[in-house]
């Protein structure tokens, strides 16, 4: 009979901290691709021949995906397993490689939505993966790092995108961020052995239905809506406002935005 010590030793044989690095790194690079368009907003508007109102959807469509697909991600993971769900998520995130080269605005929106679905699935499943491979003592610090991963990605994008675009061009810069995601996707495919038992369809449905009945679910969701909306407005339009209203250089404006993030 396998003892508790045997189980612990078996668990430690897995490259748990490498998996934690993959989970963290993928979401950092997702944040870089997500908000990397902000310093390049005028270039993208010009390339796609669209106005600011249409351009705002390039960022908003990802938030739309992230508001819908976390629930779907949980159901998918329950049915096909955590490993497979994470791999699907990674493929969708890496889809960002081709987005800068698309010539049509509608194609951009569709592709960015799919990219957002990948991010929504990833952020949802990070917690589940942490539960699977880390002990109760280790989870708080791992969750803490995962919680700031996307903000670190945004900071990196706001800091380096302008200089990189001057050297490589704006399209190659955005593709580069998604190529970083591709590296983590490959690492996930090789080392991401995160075991989880599949739940039956009925079990998964019951769990999510019960969650929707809890008042705290709706209180937290609605409470988070306002701050998130303000965060997106600040990241998207505040730097443009500074540049147009006060003629503040773009590089300096992006520096201010990093402090907020």
Query: What fraction, in percent, of the residue positions are helical?
Result: over 70%
Largest sheet: none
How far apart, in Å, are the first and last alpha carbons? 51 Å
What's the count of strands?
0
Order of helices and strands: HHHHHHHHHHHH
Shape: globular
Query: How would you classify the helix and strand content by structural class?
Result: mainly alpha
Beta-strand content? under 5%
Uncertain segments are: 1-12, 197-204
Rounded average pLDDT: 86
Supply the number of helical segments.
12
* Quaternary structure: single chain
User: What's the gyration radius in Å?
Assistant: 20 Å
Describe the structure.
The chain has 261 residues and is mainly alpha-helical. Helix 8 packs antiparallel against helix 9.
Task: Supply database-style keywords.
mainly alpha, 12 helices
How are the SSEs ordered, and which strands pair?
Layout: H1 4-13, H2 16-35, H3 41-48, H4 52-55, H5 57-80, H6 82-94, H7 105-133, H8 139-168, H9 170-191, H10 201-213, H11 215-246, H12 250-260
Helix pairs in contact: 2-7, 2-8, 2-9, 5-6, 5-7, 5-10, 6-7, 6-9, 7-8, 8-9, 8-12, 11-12
Short description:
The chain has twelve helices and no strands.
